[in-house]
Amino acid sequence: MSTAADLAPTSRAAAWRERLTPRRLRESLQAILESADGDSRRPELKRGNESSVPGLHVIGDLAGAPVIKLAMAQGVEVIDYLSTLPEMRQPASASGDAELLDVLVVGAGASGLNAALAAKERGWRCVVLEKERIANTIDQFPEGKWVYAEPDTVPAKGKLWLDGAQKEELVQRWQQIVRDNALDVRTEQPLQRLAKQGGVFVATTPKGTLRAKKVVLATGQRGNPRKLGVAGEGLGHVYHRLYSPRKYQGERLLVVGGGNSAIEAALTLAEKNQVVLSYRGGEFARVFKDNQKKLDAAIAAKRIEVVFHSQVQEFRPGEATLTVDRGGHREERVVATDHAFVLVGAELPVAFLKGLGIRLENEWEGNPWRALALAIAALFGCLWLGQAFGAEARFTWLGGSWIAQAFFGSDGRGIGLGFVPWWGGLALLLATLALLVRTGVKGDRWSWLSLSFLVWYAIYGIKYDKGDEFWPFKGWGYSALSFPFFDLVGGKWQLVERPWSFWYTALYTVLMTVFGLRAIKRWGLDRKDRFQIWRYTSLLAFQWILFFLIPEFLFQWAVQYQWVGEKLASDPTFADPHQAWRTYGLVYAWPLFFYSFFYSPHQIWVIWGVLLTCVVIPLLVLFQGKRYCSWICGCGGLAETFGDRWRHLAPKGNRSIRWEVMGLWILIAAFVVTLMMLARDGFQLGRLVIDRDTSGFWHDKAEFGMRLYRVVADVWLIGILPVTLYPFLGGKVWCRYWCPLAKLMQYVSKFWTKLGWSRFRIVSNDKCIACGECSRNCQVGIPVMQYALKQDVLDNETSSCIGCGICVTVCPMDTLSFSRDEHGKAKLLPVLPSR
Amino acid sequence: MQARNGRLGELAAWLLLAGCVWLATSTGRRATAQEPPLLAAGHCVACGHATDGVATARPIDHSGRRVAACSDPCAHQFAANADALFARFEARGAWFDENAVTGGGAPPSVARLLSAWFWLGAWVVLGLIGAAWSAYLALSKGLAPLPWLLRGLAFNLLAVVAVALKRPVAAAPPGLAKIAATAAPIDCRECGGPNHPAARRCVGCGAVLTAAAESEAQRALRKGG
Asked: What is the DSSP string of A703-720?
């Protein structure tokens, strides 16, 4: 008879087997890769807001326009863009096809109407399809709601009227504009189907079909309220918006949700009704400070009852059943309900968009196993290709420790594979790369991941060491990539072989410079933020000066021309030909760069290394927080420039913040390796302590630890993995999760903040409109909007902010700021004089 | 505070660059010590063996530096191939931890970048700082920043001077702050609630407000009228 103890290992093994099934592995990996998604998911857009369906453009709320004025601007800009296309130069009216439209606009909101007006102005044939009525989303705001016309200093584009006004006035004016301009707006005609026939879109509505050269999708997402998906949600007394709170008096009402809409509705309704507010979370994390205050007062006055950790199970006439989680124990509660308001936000109309064939951002479709197989095949192609460079084609994983082979490329005898010629390897490599590109273009994101991995694995694996490259580049990769370069030798221009490390650094610097200038335009010039201009310039200047001019020229000249003094210039410990790399230690502090202390350094490097880590960095952190990461560091520099376009894909949410603990593990590992190396270098320690020469013991252990750390941290975690993941998880994977210096600065900054000495913080005023742009663009995944809504101070005690200031830059309402007034409170921006 | 940080940042960047340029331009200022400094002290320049305590060891001066040869044959060997042997002891750039192999049968030499690359790098850095400074000044004066960024990249300090001489067309707060895209809300005197600065009636309680700024529509009417 089996006991529980007998069964336990079996069930544990079964659980592990279940976890390691291909399906579960894919799900786990996909969960990490999709961790950027939240409420900010959008269609994948190219230039001119063109979606993955050629000719179908997406604008407005769906395309991320955070406020009405910017949505209106997108409407005009998309028509401007379309007018530059060759196929739009001749209007449809000149084609002889009486029914062909130039543009079909779907959605009669701010962006859609403005696009239609702009199209009409160009003399194009244009029809607007609207599933309900003109300005439907705004029209369904609560009565009398004020509609803001922010940002004030940005002029409104197009013919649509916009000013700070009550929603009724705004909608009335827009209807008048539609009439005055004789726009063909077909209300209550939803787009049911969209197909492309002979290069022309055919749109199907309940009342017929329309043909158009281009389609502009401006449906928005706020008109698509999120639903709970529970029984009874379709009953007549369950609503997904609150239109007229004055209609309800003396009734028992249930409000479901934890955002500002739900709380404002509860507060308004509680004036004349009995309200229960049900929320699945344990606290209201995303509400305005003012709403929180009013809610606290209403709860204290027993006008509202809040039921946290509760979820609606079912709606029935006159009542609703809630499941309440009380610390792991679940219980049911029936709430008397005359009317229920489910206000849990809006969601992207995924089914509608997918029905149109539009691809969404960060959509992990495709086949990961095919991508993996192709990547392995490509690496085998490289193995055979290596024969052209004198390498021996050999599969060595079976010849020794596979970890050693994978990580160190160490020798081990394996199976000879020389029966395939080198050109066979080249053919295999090219074929697999072509297949990856082909499947990637068709929408397989796993193929792009695989391709990115291959590129960066080759770059960093080959750079690891000449003669000790990663498999399958061992023994030939470094030489193969050491391209010649024209230089002046002996008074003549000659082709001089430059090592791969040269080309790598040149590539790094060029990538940073090109994409850095692009980032300066994107964030500094286009958004009029002078902070960003200097931040990016600082990153580029540090890269050029400290990683090019000094280590390549100035150090050599300092020795050659004795700028460092005759004594130092003649000291081989300092002036050895191979010492220039130590100048990286001028700016890279321990533990990011701990080689300043090893391999017989001159004492000047040791003193500077200690000073940098123990004095300079803590002082910098005191005044500037972790701005070292966003103003100085070369690793952060590549992420901020080359990785900038993918910054919105940084992992978000509490789970992703918990992963940051990995930085602590790396910091501890760096500390241990440093101690071991110091013990090795000072092997006399063994003699002194235990009266025995332990240099051999320490030497082996320290060398192993250093080698392991170098491969794991300095190659895989700083190079191959994070750069591979730039297009999928944003640029800050290394900096946020694994960089030991960033973690050290985080602790120092937290310490200064707790003492109340830190000068670094981001503050908010009361203008947040919860558009989420700040959180979306945060490269280190901080939920900035939650801070802004509550007007909480964002510092390094509660977040890993690196002070890049993109959240401040991107905010359309100027809510966030580094500024403080004399009382330490948020300083509101001044009212600008009218122009 | 941002303004001060900005000025400090600019100052630091310029000092760093000025230091680099000063050092680079002083390459002609070789040390004029009576005794040239000993290069690779304690080792023979030809065979690499230790010279300390070797009776036949003798110093050889070359290119303003002093090397040691452990014997006459080594001294002759050095004399025959002085540049190549001497070059082995010269400091080299961090990107080259090995000797370069030159094409066309030329002897191995130290893998060092031509100093013209230094000037290219210095010009890029100068261009970047000039570009940033020009764009910064252009934004502060209400001018279009992109043309000034490009002019700064190409002409660096000349562009900075040119934009500094331009008359401002709009006011902007000093320092590194973002130029505001919105105006601050005004508080209602009755209920204290925030309102759009162009609002004439409180969104919370309906009280009459005095607009603190013109709306776009008013501006448009004024311009049109």
From this structure: HHHHHHHIIIIIIIIIII
